[in-house]
Amino acid sequence: MSTIFYNANIFDGKTGNIQSNSWFEVKNGKISQVSKGSPSFTNKKQFLDLKGQYVTPGLINAHTHIMMNPVTNKLEYLSETEVAATALQNLSDLIDSGVTYIRDCGCAFNTDIKLRDFAKKHFIKAPGIIASGRPMSMTGGHGDFKEGSDGKIDWSYLTDSPNEMRKAVRTALKLGADNIKVMATGGVMSAGDNINDTALTPSEMNVAVEEAHHKGKTVAAHAQGNSGIQNALDAGVDSIEHGIYVDEKQAQFMIKHHVRLVPTLNAAASISKYGRGKLPDYMIRKNDQVKADFFRNISMAFKKGVRIIVGTDAGTPFNNFKTGTWEEMQLLVNEIGATPTQALFAATRDAAELLGISDEYGTLETNKYADFIVLAKDPTQNIDAITQEDKAVYQHGKKIK
């Protein structure tokens, strides 16, 4: 039996307009009809009156770390059991917030891959997952963290030549990675490097791109400093993650070559707001050094036309899974200059395109999965509407929250 949701104001993710007084039908988890006005009421269908509320596609968070606990901030010597338990809680928090799909960008023990596969056969309360598994790092660089209670396992594949990269990427793809994450620069959270330090070389990352694209997969580059961003762009990656020191020339290149930018603004905002006196001095120092430049450069890139995608770096210090996606969207509007509608596109249609799932997700159209949220207020007028804690969340047409 199908279900018809009626008396709704719909933001379908295709255009910036609200379709007032509309209805849609869900059958076998997918949308079978969308129309204006009132449906024909029959005894053969279920009907749900949405009472004039606002419906949007489920949100997509394109940069998470479900293995991380943003409160304890423990990065190393995590056991596989601890990683799995943390990930399950974080996934539950994400979908409760209205996030119905994620791309995880680096997970010890390939737990994101394992949970993605487990969810195909067994119900777990979780968004859909585009999994990267273990990322690609250089020895001693950002991502060279020890895991396992005995420290005998590396968080990343440690690759120090094109040949080592080829072997590592092929291994990751064999184990089921949907996306390859490469570390092009140092980072705020790694003690042994600086943001402007370059890490993996263009030739190493080019091998990652070659192998991933050969299998129809994507490559995302952690790239914060300007030189590392350039190395990643020269290598042909599909998205720049963070992009703190992106410049105008690089922005133009990204527009021309359809490279997406996932800034993860909330990572910097959360450290600045909650981390003082609680995090290591080097994290606070590096974050303070770059935050103003970060927001200014992302605003420049956005205004020039670079496609910005919502991703939060959830799991990094105080960057939580319950509210982080909303906060990222608010930052896009309040700090970067996006309209509420543009922020919604960045978390729905545009994010789905980057993740390679736009055939079935990201917009509310016929033959796509019925992943959607129901809000009391119009998010195209005020992005704060997305922060409603008691919003209804539907995944494949079934109410999750």
From TrEMBL:
Q: Where is the signal peptide?
A: none
Annotated Pfam families: Amidohydro_1
Q: Which residues form the Amidohydrolase-related domain?
A: 54-388
Protein name, please? Amidohydrolase family protein
